[in-house]
Design brief:
Layout (H helix, E strand, L loop, with lengths): L9 H9 L5 H25 L4 H8 L3 H8 L7 H11 L11
Helix pairs in contact: 3-4, 3-5
Length: 100
């Protein structure tokens, strides 16, 4: 639906670019968006703790390049690794919400 001044609302934009809700391409977009958000959250938490990527990697037993790939959404992350980064590396806890 076009709005005043020919601007599209967000859902119309997503429909045009990624397909309607429920389509494979729209679901892929949302999965990638969630992965991106996880990377941003990890990066922000790391910076609040004044840790470099190398320091965080050392704390959790991984590499700086892996932390960088997670923060830049270039790598899938295993749940066990995510939990280790949050718990051991950042001193936090992970809460999940399942929507069905």
């Amino acid at each position: 639906m076009k709005t005043k001044n020919n601007f599209k609302n967000w859902d119309d934009h997503l429909d045009a670019k990624y397909g309607k809700k429920g389509t494979a391409s729209r679901e892929k977009f949302h999965e990638e968006l969630e992965a991106f958000k996880i990377g941003v959250l990890i990066q922000e938490a790391r910076k609040r703790k004044n840790l470099t990527q190398q320091q965080l990697a050392d704390k959790v037993g991984t590499t700086k390049s892996y932390i960088s790939r997670i923060e830049n959404n270039a790598s899938d992350i295993r749940l066990s690794t995510l939990m280790r980064i949050i718990r051991e590396g950042l001193g936090g806890s992970l809460k999940l919400l399942l929507k069905v």
